[in-house]
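hey m, so remember when u said the tokens were messed up on ur end? i reran from scratch. heres the input so u can diff it against urs
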Amino acid sequence: MAAAQTPALAPSAPHIPVLLDEVLEGLAIAPGEVHVDATFGAGGYSRAMLAAGASVHGFDRDPDAAATGAELAAQSEGRFVFHAGRFSQLAQMLRAAGVVQVDGIVFDIGVSSMQLDQAERGFSFQYDGPLDMRMGQDGLSAADFVNTADEGDIADILYLYGEERQSRRIARAIVAARPLQRTLELATVVRKALGYRPGAPKDPATRTFQAIRIHVNGELDELREGLVAAEAMLAPGGRLAVVSFHSLEDRIVKRFLKARSGSEGAGSRHLPDHPGQRRAPSFEKPARPTRAGEAECARNPRARSATLRVAVRSDAPAWGTHDDAERQAA
């Protein structure tokens, strides 16, 4: 429905977001509602939300997204506002703009196609570029990390964020090859350390690049804080839609919604159960996760790993930041 109207707003939109139709169905936008695109990128979700009749606030920490955001704001007759900042800050930034509550929020977690396709951003091992990977283009770069971190710290990051079983072997190879300044230099080191054979179904550098990117951008903490911010800003009946692309992200979303919807069953085995102290669920029981169909995966290979989770905000007060019980339960 809304996706078919999207070109009327911006016929040159460079990317079609993953699971767009399913996200729009989950958001169930009614004309006049206020929605948030927490990961603006190239603006695909925002355009579709505008076409469905919503007013939209878009967030992105990447300075490259700001020009697209300004262009869309100029086209939207006041119905779109771009916020240059992290989505973990969306509650503060929306309130500063005079917005008290919103009707829907969508997150598309991880690196965007726009970032991957630009060799100079250093996110992809498919192109030769500077070893950067910074979404906000500030702070610690991937090169800073691999060239200065202790071998043990590198191994821990690769294991924790890349689920890389050969993390120690790769970390030794990285330290031995320093300094590393280019994406293909790092990819070559990883491939050599793991005995890469051309034509293998998955490039062995995939997990290493994922882990380093997550680390330098603080992505998992950002996701946790963003979910808490979304809970704070959603009106009763408001809809949350989160698209994730690997198990680490999806696990965080799943556990957050499970805890906040009261679906955990008995409490943590590490803590005493005090029924009188249980909080009222801040979300209704979430819908079953959705994954892309064969047709979308054929059009966009990135969709193969995508998972969408949707939940509806209850009228109970927001829980706020993660407490000790939630950390134990996770």
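this time it looks ok to me. The radius of gyration is 21 Å. if urs says something different then somethings off w ur setup not the seq
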